[in-house]
Amino acid sequence: MSDSEKKYILAIDHGTGGPKTAIVSTHGEVVDWAFQEVPLHVEKGGGVEQDPNDWWNAIIKTSKKVIDSGLVSVEDIVGVCNTSQWSGTVPLDKNGNHLMNAIIWMDTRGAPYIKDVYKGLIKFSGMNILKALKWVKRTGAAPGLSGKDPIAHMLLIKHEYPEIFEKTYMFLEPQDYINLKLTGKFATSYTTIGAHWLTDIRKINNIKYSKKLIKMCKLDQSKLPSELINSTDILGQLTNDVANELGLEKNVKVIAGAPDLATAAIGSGAVNNYDTHIYIGTSDWVICHVPFKKTDIFHGIGTILSGIPGRYFAINEQEIAGGALSFLRDKILYHKDELLREEAVPDVYKIFDRMVENVPAGSNNLIFTPWLIGERSPVDDHTI
C-alpha cells in the first residue's frame, strides 16, 4: 500500500498518569505520539480525584502536537478512538458539564456505603453471601468492599454530596466522558459499563441492566447511560468545535472503544482463549480470554466482557505497581518540604531504569509490598 492510500486513527490512551495520544495507521504502525501528565488530587479519608478539565486539556494538547507534526495529512486521519482508566465516576449535568472532580478508581471513601449494601446475616469475607451470589451470577464478579467501584462512588455522592446527586443528569465513566466531549453523546459500551456491576452479562449477545441489582443498591437507573453499544461500534462524528480545534475533517468517526484493561489485552495480541496478558502501569493485572463466565470469589478473579464483542475475559487486578515509582518520585525524592534541595529531574524514570540495571535479580532479598492504597486481589482490603 502506498503512503497516499494509508489511513490513520488518532488513538488516545487516557491513563491515570495522563493521556498518551498517537497517530496510528489502520495497519498498526505508530507514526508519532505525545504524553501529558495529569495531577492526582489526594483528599483526606481516602479520596482520590482528578479534574476532568485537566484530562481534556491534556488530550487536546497532545492531539494537536501529533497532528501538527505534519507526518500525515489530516485528510488521511479518518477516526478517533479512546481508551481510558476504568472504574471512575464523573457526575454531569444535561449540558455535559462536570459537577465536581472525577472520583477515580483509587478512591475509597464509598467503602461504608457499599458495606451497607452487603449487610445481612450470612457473610463471607464481609459480604452477605446471598447478595454477593446475586452479583456473581449476573455480572461475573461483584463490587469490592474497598469502595473503589463506581457503585460506591455514586453512593458516596448520594449520601455526602446530595445536592450534586440531585443535579446529576448522568454518571459517566472516564471513557464515556471523553467520548461525550468528542461527540456530544451520552453513551457507554457494554464493556465499559461492566465495572459498575449493574449489567446482566449471562446472555453475551443480550446485555442489559439488572433492575434487581440497581434496586438493591438504591440507585437511579435514569442517571446511567441508556445507550449501550459494542466497543467496536461507531459512536458518532467529532463535534464541529472539536474538529475545528484539532484541525481535522468534520466527518471523522469516533469509535466507542473500551477501557484500559480490555484494550491492553487486545493490543498485546492475547486474543485467543487462554492466551495470557500481563500488564504493569499505575496498577497491574493478569488477563486471558476464556470461552465461559466463571468467578473465583476466593481469589478475586472475575470474568467480564471483553472489548471484542461476544467474548469474555478473566481478570485479576492489583492496585499499585508502577504507581509506586510515582510515589517514590513525588513523596520521597522530590516531596515539597524544607528538605528539598533541588528541582525534580526530567524523565527521572529513565534514571530509575539505569539504576535497576545494576541491581541483581531478587534485589538482595529486599521485599517491597506496594500496598499504598490497599489491595483488590487476591485480598479485597483497602486498609492494607
What this model shows, in words?
There is one protein chain. The protein has 384 residues and is an alpha+beta fold. It has a single domain, classed as ATPase, nucleotide binding domain (Nucleotidyltransferase, domain 5). 28% of the residues lie in helices and 23% in strands. The chain has twelve helices and 21 strands. It has helices at 52-67, 111-117, 129-139, 150-160, 162-167, 174-183, 190-193, 211-217, 240-246, 260-268, 323-333, 348-356; strands at residues 8-15, 18-25, 30-35, 41-43, 47-50, 77-84, 90-92, 102-103, 123-124, 127-128, 170-172, 188-189, 199-200, 208-209, 228-229, 234-237, 253-255, 276-280, 284-290, 302-305, 312-318. It starts with 7 loop residues before the first strand and ends in a 28-residue tail after the last helix. The mean pLDDT is 91.
Percent of residues in helices: 25-40%
Biggest sheet descriptor:
6 strands, mixed
CATH topology: Nucleotidyltransferase, domain 5
Q: Helix/strand/pairing class, anyone?
A: alpha+beta
Total helical segments: 12
What radius of gyration results from the CA coordinates? 21 Å
Question: What's the CATH H-level homologous superfamily?
Answer: ATPase, nucleotide binding domain
Work out the number of β strands. 21
Which helices and strands occur, and which strands form pairs?
Elements: E1 8-15, E2 18-25, E3 30-35, E4 41-43, E5 47-50, H1 52-67, E6 77-84, E7 90-92, E8 102-103, H2 111-117, E9 123-124, E10 127-128, H3 129-139, H4 150-160, H5 162-167, E11 170-172, H6 174-183, E12 188-189, H7 190-193, E13 199-200, E14 208-209, H8 211-217, E15 228-229, E16 234-237, H9 240-246, E17 253-255, H10 260-268, E18 276-280, E19 284-290, E20 302-305, E21 312-318, H11 323-333, H12 348-356
Parallel strand pairs: 1-6, 6-17, 12-15
Antiparallel strand pairs: 1-2, 2-3, 4-5, 5-8, 7-11, 9-10, 13-14, 16-17, 18-19, 19-21, 20-21
Helix pairs in contact: 2-4
